[in-house]
Design a protein that fits this description.
By secondary structure, the chain is an alpha/beta fold. The chain folds into two domains: about 1-105, P-loop containing nucleotide triphosphate hydrolases (Rossmann fold); about 145-220 and about 265-290 and about 305-365 and about 380-435, P-loop containing nucleotide triphosphate hydrolases (Rossmann fold). Helix content is about 35%, strand content about 10%. It contains 19 helices and twelve strands. The chain has helices at about 1-10, 10-20, 35-40, 55-65, 85-90, 95-105, 120-135, 150-160, 170, 185-190, 235-240, 270-285, 315-325, 330-335, 340-345, 380-385, 385-395, 405-410, 415-420; strands at about 45-50, 65-70, 140-145, 165, 210, 220-225, 265, 310-315, 340, 350-355, 395-405, 425-430. The protein has a six-stranded parallel β-sheet with strand order 9-8-10-11-5-12. Strands 1-2 form a two-stranded parallel ribbon. A two-stranded parallel sheet has the order 3-4. Helix 8 (about 150-160) links the parallel strand 3 (about 140-145) and strand 4 (about 165). Helix 8 runs antiparallel to helix 17 and helix 12 (about 270-285) packs across helix 13. The chain is globular, with a radius of gyration of 26 Å. Belongs to the DNA2/NAM7 helicase family. It is found in: Nucleus; Chromosome. Pfam families: AAA_11, AAA_12.
Length: about 450
């Protein structure tokens, strides 16, 4: 606004003075190309956050405006998003962060044509050595987000047990930190004997839970090519679910993906409805409205829990759309419930993360066999990427709930590794599941 005002009054002297005296400037990597400030200033330092997700060529722009630069990122999380398989194969998804990290280890920053003469080769080698010596890598192993149980999963999956909690408070955070009114403890006890027992448990040891849908007849994936939010439930099951969820009136029409592969159209209606139910139960037990009152409460532990503490993620855009549809546009706008893909959740965190894996074979209790199933099974690159699973796991601070079919997901190496890491008591089976339970 100040810039616009000075431009309108043609007070360029004041504008130049303003631009030259700002000590810290925040911008996107692409934004530096369009703003006149960056054409007049050279900064002492440029810090690029989430640098592992920025295209190499995009990172170069800000670096022309600084004497020194700092890249902050995690190579074990998602790289820049590249839709083209051909472009990914040829290295477009390599960030400057990854390039320099690999360079510092290999002491090699490039390849040169064979017809370079000896003088050029010696000059380039000298430059390589000086450049590599100027790179300083500082690994940060102290984390302030996850409790010790969630961190342990991330450590064993990805970080080789190098991550450490910053302090005892971070190490022990859980849902027990939230106020549960004594008038609601009966509701909590009511679910102790159901499949929801560990899902809603505030105990630190129950911070990571995997809900296995393998035993549910209708919990398999379907292909929603027309974005209609297809449904494979039986008539009886649909009648039960419709008592609590309205798929029509409150639905939203989200933008569809341009990807023509069948994997981009996959949804799992059962997982979507189960997630919706879990969110409502969590809010019922831990949520507290401003007019809630409990005469037995002494006012301690006044931290409150609301929808903003919950994040819902899935690797598939259509599943995200389906879950949003169940909650309805009005609910999402009023309560700020964030439902998104794993890629778009990178850099964010929530107290509770619910992850919908979606992929599931038709026949419960059996390993997927493309020859025997009537619906064609399409492999998903999204589930094969260990970095994507790492991002999903590390978004949670107090509770991580993963929903999926164990037998199907065993086809993917990252999930096989996850199942080897989880303890037996961290798995929740739905063998005795009754559809009426979620109504």
């Amino acid at each position: 606004d100040r810039t616009k005002q000075w431009l309108e009054t043609e007070n360029l002297t004041a504008l130049n003075h303003f631009y030259s005296t700002i000590p810290v400037v925040a911008a996107t990597c692409l934004g530096v190309f369009n703003h006149p400030l960056f054409q007049k200033r050279t900064f002492d330092f440029c810090i690029i956050d989430e640098a592992s997700q920025v295209f190499l060529c995009t990172s170069l722009g800000p670096l022309f405006n600084c004497h020194n630069f700092v890249l902050v990122g995690d190579q074990k999380q998602l790289p820049p998003v590249v839709q083209s398989t051909y472009a990914r194969y040829n290295g477009l998804d390599e960030s400057l962060f990854s390039r320099l990290l690999n360079t510092s280890g290999k002491q090699d920053i490039g390849h040169y044509d064979d017809d370079f003469n000896d003088d050029n080769e010696n000059m380039n080698k000298d430059y390589e050595n000086k450049f590599c010596q100027s790179i300083r890598i500082f690994p940060l192993f102290i984390q302030y987000r996850m409790n010790s149980v969630i961190m342990q999963v991330a450590n064993q999956l990805t970080y080789g047990n190098k991550l450490k909690c910053a302090n005892k408070q971070v190490e022990s955070i859980s849902l027990s930190d939230y106020l549960v009114l004594k008038s609601k403890t009966g509701i909590l006890e009511e679910y102790r004997s159901t499949y929801l027992s560990k899902v809603i448990s505030p105990d630190l040891n129950d911070s990571v839970i995997f809900i296995d849908t393998n035993s549910i007849e209708s919990a398999f994936e379907i292909y929603d090519e027309d974005n209609s939010g297809g449904n494979n439930f039986s008539q009886k099951q649909q009648q039960s679910l419709s008592l609590m969820y309205d798929d029509g009136e409150n639905g939203t029409n989200s933008n569809t993906t341009n990807d023509n592969s069948k994997c981009s159209f996959v949804i799992n209606p059962f997982e979507a409805k189960l997630i919706s139910h879990i969110v409502r139960i969590l809010l019922l037990i831990y949520g507290q409205k401003s007019n809630d009152n409990d005469d037995d409460d002494d006012g301690k532990n006044a931290t409150t829990f609301n929808v903003d503490n919950i994040g819902i993620i899935s690797p598939f855009r259509r599943q995200v759309n389906k879950i949003r549809e169940l909650f309805g546009q009005q609910f999402l706008e009023q309560n700020h419930l964030e439902i998104n893909t794993v890629d778009q959740y990178q850099g964010r965190d929530k107290d509770v993360i619910i992850y919908s894996c979606v992929k599931s074979c038709e026949t419960p209790g059996e390993t997927m066999n493309p020859i025997e199933t009537s619906t064609p099974i399409i492999d998903s690159e999204l589930l094969k990427d260990e970095r994507r699973l790492n991002v999903a796991v590390t978004r949670a601070k107090r509770k991580l709930i993963i929903i999926g079919n164990c037998h199907t997901l065993k086809r993917y190496l990252p999930f096989r590794n996850l199942f080897n890491v989880l303890r037996v008591e961290q798995f929740v089976s739905l063998k005795n599941f009754d559809f009426n339970d979620i109504v």
